[in-house]
Amino acid sequence: MNVDTGEPIKGVTAQGYSDNSAWAREQAWGVYGFALSYAHTGILACGLLELSKHLPVLDPRKKEYEETAVQIVKSLFENYTTEKDLSNGIIKHGVYAIPFHVGVDECCIWGDYFYVEALMRLRNVWNMYW
Fold first, then answer.
1. Which of 35, 68, 69, 73 is most exposed, with the fewest beta carbons within 10 Å of its own?
2. CB neighbours of 34 closer than 8 A, spacing ≥ 6?
3. 73 or 25: whose pLDDT is higher?
4. Is position 110 within any domain?
5. Does 35 map to a domain?
6. pTM of this structure
């Protein structure tokens, strides 16, 4: 990455056929990650807002993605924030290790992060750093 502009300089891979090839497993992880986002609403709101940025203005999905993201963030605000609670986080009822019974029904830093990112995106003050 260019440290002054943030633009990528080149891509280098140790996993794919070449620096210009697609890595099938990486693409599979991308699809899997997109599907997992469906289960994690803050991440999903951010993803929908990012997708809508890349659609033409007249594409009906653009408005649909944006409206869905707004509904998700509104639901998070109305039902899951710690606004009236003493807490070390923002979004309640997070989970990060169900099999080990650790971090069940707690605030999680990544949940708070994606909630704040979604809020920033909705205010049009979000700048991607990658």
1. 35
2. 47
3. 73
4. yes
5. yes
6. 0.67
Helices (H), the chain: 24-39, 41-53, 60-80, 109-122
**Tens of pLDDT along 32-55?**
776 666 667 788 899 899 999 999
Largest CA distance in the chain: 53
> What letters, b where the CB count within 10 A reaches 16 and e where it falls short, cover 100-110?
eeeeeebbbee
Expressed as residue numbers, the domain containing 28 is 24-122
**Contact residues for 16 (Cβ-Cβ < 8 A; gap 6+):** 22, 23, 26
Closest alpha carbon to 43 in 100, 116, 93: 116
How many structural domains compose the chain? 1
Q: Is 122 exposed, middle or buried (0-12, 13-18, 19+ CB in 10 A)?
A: middle
Within a domain: 43: yes
Please indicate, yes or no, if residue 67 is contained in any of the structural domains: yes
